[in-house]
Amino acid sequence: MELIIDAIITGILTGGVYALMASGLTLVFGVMEIINIAQGAFVILGAYLSYALAQHFHIDLFLGLLITMPVMFVLGVLIQVLFIRPLKRDRTMLSILVTFAVALIIEGVLTILFTANIVTLKAPYITQSFRIGNFYLSYIYVYGFLLSVVLLAGLYLLLYRTKFGQSVRASMLNRTAAQLIGIDVERVSALTFGIGVALTAAGGMAFGATTAFNPGSSYDLISRLLTIIVLGGMGSLSGALIASLGMLIIENVTAVVWSPTWSSTVFFVLLVVILILRPQGLLGKLEGRKQ
Amino acid sequence: MITARKYGKPVGLLALLGVAIAFPLVFSDPTYTTIAVFALIFASAASGWNIFAGYTGYIALGHAAYFGIGAYALAIICQRYNIPGGWEPIYLIPLCGLIAGVFAIPLGAIALRTRRHTFIVVTIATFFIVQLMAFNLRGLTNGSTGLDMPIPFQWGAGYQGGNQSIYNLPFYFTALALTIVALAVSWFIRHSKYGLGLLAIRDDEDRARGLGVRTGSSKLSAFVISAIFAGMAGALFAYFIGSVQPQFDFDPLFDLSIALMTFLGGIGTRAGPILGALVLEFAQQWLTLYFTQDGLYLILYGVLFLVVILLLPRGVIPSLQELWAKGRARGRIGPLVLPVKTPVMSAGTTSPPTATRMTGQAGETAHEEVPR
Amino acid sequence: MFGPTIATWRKIAALASILGLMLMGLAACGNNSGAGNTTPIKIGISLSLSGDFSADGQAFQQGYQLWADYVNSHGGLLGRQVKLDILSDASNEAQVTTNYQKLITQDKVDLVFGPYSTLLTKPASVVANRYGYALVEGAGGGPSVFNRGLNNVFDVSLPVANNLVSFTQLMAAMPAGQRPTSVAYATEDDPFTQPQVDLANQLLTQAGIPAAVPEIIYPAETTDFTPIAQKIIAAHADIVVLGTQLPDITAFILAFKQQHYNPKAIIATAGPDQGTQFLQAIGGAASAEGIMVPNGWFAEEKTPGNAAMVQAYIAKYGGTPDGISADVPEAYSVGQVVQQAVEKIGSLNQAKLIQELHSGTFTTVQGPVKFDSTGQNTAITSYLFQWQKGSLVPIYPADTFGAVAPEYPKPSWP
Predict the structure, then answer these.
(1) Helix crossing, B64-80 with B116-136: angle to 10°?
(2) What CA–CA distance (Å, rounded) separates A82 from A76?
(3) Mapping DSSP to helix (H, G, I), strand (E, B) and coil, where does residue A216 land?
(4) Distance CA C77, CA C342 (A)
(5) Confidence of residue B161 (pLDDT cuts 50, 70, 90)
């Protein structure tokens, strides 16, 4: 029983970090209807940026986000402007191929700069832990979760309390109509893409602090992130949050009560059942005719 | 001119077939035939994928599941029934394709409940479910260790001490046959009423339904047909490699590869996927061979991707068609255009005017346009 | 008027030139095959220089290169220099198949050495078999390589499944008061690790040390190890046997440290044998203290050529003897075995080479080599190693050169 409670606690804490990584993906899909296959690679890039800052300049992982997040934001905007904006037709499919190409290039560059060796982030709060019952919890899980909560709350405020947020939501509802009422949809798209990528800098740091990684680690991540946003409903932020927590809790509990090899299967079966009942995902909207 | 147009196409196709048959005899070096076998396997899979994705406009990124099921089906059948290496496994390939098709029915039905954009991600998710099963159903799949295929030792003349350059030939011609079948089925569907229904779905699904196209069953059947080709390609791939392992035969990059191949050649065209597969498979193996150090090949491959997509977003064949159409509109069909009308290109160039009428789009090339 | 047309043409021309370049590249691969007595002996190898197995692939490349350097500076092989022809396979099985085809038929190599990992050795062995080439390898030890009746695959390293045998012997031989009473097993779902853990489980159970919980198997792509670590900890077993490679042993050590979990012994199938890489990954030598790993080789081992290899490694790649990955001697041994066999038969005839490999006995930096009928090495001993004060030292069998007493129980985490 205690094992299950521990599994749920870690599930919630790591689920928060996944929510951070998935929120960028689902937001970008919502606004642009593109699927950013490079999200996993951006997470790993974010982790490596934190690693490089910590290794060479001895900058604290959390403090380093003040540098890495703006850098990643600019990178995201550039990629959107250079590679995604030119896609005029068949955007969804071509965006998958373009972002896959970006992911390959990121992986190649990281391999050249950092080799394929496994690395881990190091900080005192990663190894130190505190006790709850018989169970020790590393500070990094709590800090990572708090970081996610703060950033997701910030994102929520940005979307629902600012003029920019209004434009984003209008673009999500109907791209063409948004354009008609004078919203610069391309600009909104570029900024949204930048925000989505900037969030992965934070997600990547939290991920790298709890997991050993190398440039090829992005493949396992992207599949999990994609299933999260399908379950939550494509384009739904709160859906992504619920799905992330649900996924990690279900996987962790299955791992301790049954077997880790079946933990993803249980989650996937649940996903299929939900999709049969609700094809649009938990909180997704039915796709209608958007033209 | 009219005669040339009328007979040009069959002659071109025959010439192309001749080239394909002669290729392994001219370039008998097994290195070339090996790469050619892989390229043709991908060509048949991409061509099959195009029947669904290209014609309906629904992009499926989970066909690696059916590729893997085909591969495992052949491995399991060969093991259970002690089938020796030789032609027998090749005869079983259609059966393996059908098995993959059977799996595609429920998985496709679930995925097709969602519409276009969500569908892409749902197919990816179903792929991961199937891959996990290959890892976890140990009794059937032997888990991560995988299964061994029989080895055709008795293709003896091509075996140890013999003329090894002929060993690849059965694989080559089987892959070629699969590609031809895929192309023929694409052609047949494209010219059928059923195919027109698929194109109508691509152009406007709601209107197609309104016009009486049974959209649900049309989409699902096209999905299953394309899964059958993926399954056959997987079975042949596994037999050629000699073993099956979950991480190689259920490879998420497979889908991105065939999608890119199809887009490079021209999605929705008949010859495009084949052209794309031949070019990309050669390119990939070549880049890996010569630029592998330190991940440089990843960068080059990615850049190649970007260049292709940004310069030729519609693929080689539609771009050429556009050119052809423009040239003709200006009354200048002559020397500028004709030289590039190689047989490869002409295979998918012209198409029935009915599709154009049906979808209500005007213009010479509208019927080959990619979906939105 | 010609604007768009010309632009489109330019694109087509660009694409065509890319295609042309590729074909030229392919054509350029064809090489002359002159096999006169002064030309170098070409050795073909496909290695994973990128992709999943790239870290090991690169270490393997170092091992092969060191061997080639040694041979070339000592009169060569059959009086000829050796030249390595290394292609990369990006950890991809289709590419492995193409690569060995190319090595044998186009590059016309005289000998082939194996790739990295059990998964890639399988397709490689099928191609080599077709051409009647002996495939001598050092890292394709999974049982599935050897049970399909190919007579041309030879693994110079310890048969994978037996890796943990020495550990089980050490545990079973513990005096009554110290002897562990229960074990927890966890292994990655992988053809390299799982057979080892299965056999250890069986042997320890026979020795009267039962498993505290059923063997925990986790998928290779696991990223979050906390729940698995929790499950191991909750078993309250005396010792922990882990079927891991470097990434997952790193994660387990981190999780165990966080949980203040201190079993009396921790052994991992692979990872702790990777020298500096391992220490860097877990954050320093203090965390490695007491961790065990099986291996067929260690830097101070008194085997033929070992001292020379270690010296050459440090001269060429830097670092310390303890920092040398176990992949390096595995690759080096492949070269040694082939060299001895070729010199014995006095030619590069593959059929004779295969025959000699099946019947002969060889010596390598990893110890003696004698192949059984399937091509597995029956002569090599598995040593048990432990990290003690920053170096990886042999602890079992006790008569091993330089063996020290095991640190048991393992000290608590720093």
Answers:
(1) 30
(2) 10
(3) helix
(4) 8
(5) low
CB contact under 8 A, A251 and C254: no
pLDDT one-digit tens code per residue, B259-299: 888 888 888 888 888 888 888 888 877 777 766 555 677 78
* Cα A144 to Cα A18, A210, A221, A249, C250, distances in angstroms: 10, 9, 17, 16, 20
Chain C residues closer than 8 Å to B329 by CB: none
Q: Searching chain A, which residue's CA lies closest to the CA of residue B204?
A: A289
- What is the pLDDT, as a whole number, of residue A286? 57
The mean per-residue pLDDT over the stretch C185-203 comes to 89
| Assembly ipTM | 0.80
Going along chain C from its start, the domains and CATH numbers come out as 41-160+326-370 (3.40.50.2300), 164-268+271-295+383-396 (3.40.50.2300)
| A3·C234 Cβ contact <8 A | yes
- Buried (b) or exposed (e) across B80-94, using 16+ Cβ within 10 A? eeebebeeebbebbe
Contact B259 A97 (CB under 8 A): yes
pTM across the whole model: 0.82
Q: Coil, strand, or helix at residue C190?
A: coil
C-chain CB neighbours of A120 within 8 Å are: 250, 254, 281-283
User: Averaged over B2-9, what is the pLDDT?
Assistant: 57
How much is the pLDDT for C193?
A: 87
Chain B residue numbers touching A92 (CB-CB < 8 A) = 59, 116-117, 120
Fold designation for A2-277: ABC transporter involved in vitamin B12 uptake, BtuC (1.10.3470)
Scanning every residue of chain C, which has its alpha carbon at the shortest distance from the alpha carbon of B34?
C98
Question: A215 preceded by cis ω (within 30°)?
Answer: no
Distances in whole angstroms, Cα of residue A32 to Cα of each of A50, A79, A171, B267, B309: 29, 14, 8, 22, 18
Contacts of B372 in chain A (CB under 8 A): 89-90, 291
Q: Which pLDDT score, from 0 to 100, does residue B11 have?
A: 77
Q: Tell which wins on pLDDT, C20 or A217.
A: A217
Which helix or strand (DSSP H or E) is residue C268 part of?
strand C265-268
Nearest alpha carbon to residue C234 among C256, C219, C253:
C256
Q: Which of A135-144, A230-239, B337-346, C232-241 has the lowest mean pLDDT?
A: B337-346
**Is-cis flag, bond preceding C397, omega within 30?**
yes
Q: Where are the domains of chain A?
A: 2-277
- Which is more confidently placed, A276 or C175? C175
- HSE, CB side, 13 Å, CA atoms: give it for residue C99: 34
CB of C140 closer than 8 Å to CB of C118: yes
Task: Say which CATH number the domain at B244 has.
Answer: 1.10.3470
| B34 to C119: CB separation less than 8 angstroms, yes or no | no
pLDDT (average), residues C36-58: 81
Nearest to B259 among A33, A93, A289 (CB): A93
Which residue is closest to B149 within chain C, CA to CA? C148
Mean predicted confidence (pLDDT) in A231-240:
84
The per-residue pLDDT for range C83-137, each reduced to its tens digit, is 999 888 877 888 898 889 889 888 889 999 999 888 899 899 988 988 889 999 9
Q: How many domains does chain B have?
A: 1
Looking at residue B291, its pLDDT comes to 65
Highest mean pLDDT of the ranges A144-148, B2-6, B64-68: B64-68
* Residue in A108, A261, A262 closest to B295 by CB: A108
Among positive and negative, which fits the CA dihedral A278, A280, A285, A290?
negative
Q: Which H/E stretch holds residue B86? A: none
Residue B179 belongs to domain spanning: 2-368
Instruction: Please count the residue pairs, one from chain B and one from chain C, whose beta carbons lie less than 8 angstroms apart.
Output: 138
Among the partner residues A7, A118, A260, nearest to C219 by beta-carbon distance: A260
What CA–CA distance (Å, rounded) separates C210 from C228?
20
Which residues on chain B are in Cβ contact (under 8 Å) with C18?
283, 304
